[in-house]
Write the structure tokens for this entry.
Amino acid sequence: MAKLYSFDLDEENETFFVKVGGFFQVEDAKIYLSEFQTIVNTINPSRYKFIVDGRGQEEVADHVVDDIEFVLKLYWIANFKKIIIIYPSSSASRKQVENCVKKINFPGMFVNSIEEANSIKD
């Protein structure tokens, strides 16, 4: 079974890029969080721009929305220099993310494309 995410740490440009897609199950989420934390522990996040490409993310069940909030808080707490999230392509998924962001007052930026995310300067 293919992974639902990938990580790319560009130390030269101080960018940490994550691509997520598909329908995460509980076990997928646990492994994702573990791998994410392992990478974060090897860098100084305050020097890095963090980009999450969520275009392929599918709508999640209502009981999993709390997990989205948890992950967004985890991104926030990691203290990246800048957090940029590319909205999911699915309108239902986008709405779920927007609701979570409002609920926790998330400080990250949201964009519609990878080009837009890359164009944001530090």
In short: The radius of gyration is 13 Å.
